[in-house]
Each structure stands twice: as C-alpha cells, then as structure tokens.
Amino acid sequence: CLVLMADAVATGSPDVRPAIISSDRSFREEVARGIKRGKAAGEFPRSVDPSGLATVIVGIVRGVAFQSMIDDQVDLDASRKEIEQLLVTRLRPLAAAKSLHPSRKKK
User: Fold this and answer.
1) Digit-coded pLDDT (tens) for 68-96
2) pLDDT at 106
3) CA distances from 89 to 44, 48, 64, 78, 99 (A)
4) DSSP-based three-state secondary structure for 14
5) How far apart are CA 71 and CA 19, in angstroms?
6) How far is the C-alpha of 107 from the C-alpha of 101, rounded, in Å?
C-alpha cells in the first residue's frame, strides 16, 4: 500500500490515485468511527476531534511503517509503545487526567 501511495503522489497516476484516495478515506473513516464511539460513551474527552485524530493516527502508523521499510534499524516495538502512550495520554478521560495533574494550591 505504501508503494502505491508513493506512486500516486509522485506520478499522479490516474489509475492508482483514485483507488488510493478511496482506500485512505475508508481507513481514516473507520478509525474516526471508533473514536466517535469512544466519545459518545464518555470514554474520550469531548475536545477530541475524531476526523483530525484519525488523520494523525493513520499518518503516524504509515510514517513508522515507511521508515521501517527503508531502515531495518527502526524499532517497531518501541515505536508501537510510544504510539500507544501518545494515544493513551490524548484519549484519557478528563477526570483521570485531572487526578494525574492536580492543580497547585494557591498561597
């Protein structure tokens, strides 16, 4: 998929580009649906933009995958753990986030 995406970007191939756009949108929409379900259930903060975060998640995953294709020293396990921590931090419900960072008492 990454090779086809690169071809669609580099050459603007009229055969490949529409299929890649469609596939990419479907992937982002599926991720966004999951985020919307989490928001609706109160599991994620209201401030989360499902479409925006879905785009970021897909970009991160594809970026790491691309790096690993060109450099065999990319540590996929470490990358996965870091991605998980980023998402856990962003998607942590507000109450849990406040308990981790209580406001300082004023003097």
Assistant:
1) 989 999 999 999 999 999 999 999 875 55
2) 46
3) 10, 12, 19, 17, 13
4) coil
5) 27
6) 18
SS3 track for the chain:
CHHHHHHHHHHCCCCCHHHHHHHHHHHHHHHHHHHHHHHHCCCCCCCCCHHHHHHHHHHHHHHHHHHHHHCCCCCHHHHHHHHHHHHHHHHCCHHHHHHHCCCCCCC
Q: How far apart are CA 91 and CA 85, in angstroms?
A: 10
pLDDT over 50 (residue 15): yes
End-to-end CA distance of the chain: 58
Look at the block and give the residue holding tokens 């986030």.
97
- Indicate the pTM of the whole model: 0.75
For 11, the token pair is: 């050459």
Give me the amino acid identity at 92: R
* Mean residue pLDDT across the chain: 84
